[in-house]
Amino acid sequence: MLSGGGARGAYEAGVLQYLLEDLPVRLGRPPQLDVFCGTSVGAIHACFLAATAGEVQARRLVDVWRGFRLEEVLPVSTRDLFGLPRRLFGLGRTAVELRGGRLPDRLYGLLDTRPLEKVVRGAVPWRSIRRNLDAGRVSSLCVAATEIASGRVVCFVENREKRLPPWSRDVAILSRVARLSSEHALASAAIPVLFPAVRIGSAYFADGGLRMNTPLSPAIHLGADRILVIALRAGPAEAREAALAGSRLEAYGNPFFLFGKVLNALLLDHIDTDLARMRVMNEVIDDGERAYGADFLGRINASASEGARRDWKRIEDVVVRPSADLGVLAGHVLDERRRQGRLTPLLRAFLLGLNASGVPSESDLLSYLLFDGEFAAPMIELGRADARAREEELVRFFSDS
Known about the structure:
Shape: globular
Number of helices: 20
Largest sheet: 7 strands, mixed
Helix content: 40-55%
Number of strands: 9
């Protein structure tokens, strides 16, 4: 399960590098990964993993992240920044086009993402996804995106069977069989307002993280009984929160700070709730077996309506998440480039994210947009170190026993 978070995805690349290069030394074999599910940047990574299954391609993924340069990936000039209000008021022209029956491939966004899209198209061998599915190297691939018109999550699924298993009864989540392409991944990664929405067929889609940042339920429907989650937000830590409280108060007047916090709430805060719900079901099964015997799970599955849904089962999980605040890390990169006089126009817009003493505070919004090797490199190393710290747990997780 690969989460969304824009440029925070460099952390995922570091975790994946550990899993695909370092962990096999302990296991004596590559880890077996059957189902890939992702949202936003996690959707791009999921497609990359499905397309390169059976190969050792983690280094290639890391090199892409280390090679990013912000001024090339998200080219924004001073003139572009001053033109943002004009672009906002230009939405009416897009509405006129749509009423006229014209459906552009992209539906408005404050930033020009064409260079980033070019990287995505070139970094993933898209045709290999189907080949790996047909060859049995991958069981299923799922990409989640938010349909703008309805607000529902659409899970685009490509698998060997070319059909869907019994799915969720949640009316807010739809599932569709698809031949996955770069457009599906880009649609899932379209951060609202900042990146343009992407057209698939006659509908427009935005970041899947708005409703399902870490697609746990699709993985379960697709047959997973062990789930490895790579999250892109640090767990709660009272000491860290207390240390940041003062700088947060000074930053409240900065709209970039507030927008970053809103994005966190929309895109990153679902995972713990979803995991808690899944673990409660495991506890119910454990309690049932203690109360009614070891055949409890088999009995309740036998009594379920045949074909109505998948059987109840235990789901084992391991979650690898950042041990440091990625927004703070982005703030440090911003401050370092400020001191060196190497600020792009886009970075200058974030200077209000520094408190009065010049000590970098969080820069959550920037952490979604900082597609630059200076930010990616420490994120990659952090991801690799955090995964290494869970090595014993990961060895047990991937053990056949």
